[in-house]
Specification:
By secondary structure, this protein is of the alpha/beta class. The protein contains eight helices and 13 strands. The longest helix has 21 residues, at about 140-160.
Length: about 230
């Protein structure tokens, strides 16, 4: 299984070509895939808001899910995928985390920091049915949302750079106590491994945006390695 997080793909960044080159290489493997959020720098899955790179990605996932499991957990840069684009994936969730039946949990991580009340409030306001209805009918909606995103970006970057280690460990220990053995988390663009006294582990994964790294997770036997994607093929 390949885990990809925080790619922040956009034409403005110019990183879309490398991203789709990677997806083409993945086609030659048998690996399942999990996209752990913030794959695109902004993706509002509504008419007028999607660009050709979103449509190209959807087409790729629709074709490839016939060959492999493809999971997508919404990050803070994606909106309404679970309700509008679920058919493109084996599973797609806008919940805080997604857990399989074997003790593994995937979490984007944007809701981990309980001290970031402004963001948590914004998330509730922006990711609900009413917000979706407003965006559908909002004149110049795509332009307005891009402007709002630019304004929020500086603040969000400040919180992400100040990694809330205590909050991360608090979350991990609660999930471990509930029966989870392994946690994969994105959002913070840093690599880190936290292990409790029972050797249960949380892996904080680096963002593809700055490293073009992916994580290869094999369950039997359990091995976890993170590397530049080109080394996988």
């Amino acid at each position: 299984m390949i885990i990809i997080t925080d790619a922040h793909i956009s034409k403005a960044r110019g990183n879309h070509t490398a991203f789709f080159t990677m997806l083409a290489a993945i086609e030659r493997t048998e690996h399942d895939l999990i996209f752990l959020g913030d794959i695109f720098d902004l993706w509002i899955a509504l008419p007028r808001y999607e660009d050709d790179i979103h449509i190209k990605f959807i087409a790729w996932c629709l074709e490839q899910k016939n060959r492999r499991t493809i999971g997508f957990l919404e990050g803070n840069h994606e909106f309404f995928l679970a309700s509008q684009r679920a058919e493109a994936f084996t599973w797609c969730s806008n919940d805080a985390w997604w857990q399989d039946g074997a003790g593994t949990l995937w979490v984007h991580g944007d809701q981990i920091n309980r001290r970031d009340r402004a963001y948590l409030a914004f998330k509730k306001l922006s990711k609900n049915h009413m917000a979706k209805l407003i965006l559908r009918s909002l004149p110049y909606g795509p332009e307005i949302t891009k402007s709002v995103k630019r304004g929020l970006k500086k603040r969000n970057n400040t919180f992400r750079m100040q990694v809330p280690w205590d909050e991360i460990k608090f979350f991990a220990n609660n999930r471990f106590a509930a029966g989870v053995d392994t946690i994969f988390m994105g959002h913070f663009h840093q690599a880190y491994c936290y292990r409790n006294q029972e050797s249960k582990k949380l892996y904080l994964l680096p963002g593809w945006l700055n490293t073009q790294e992916v994580t290869l997770y094999q369950k039997n036997p359990s091995t976890i390695s993170t590397m530049p994607w080109r080394k996988l093929f």
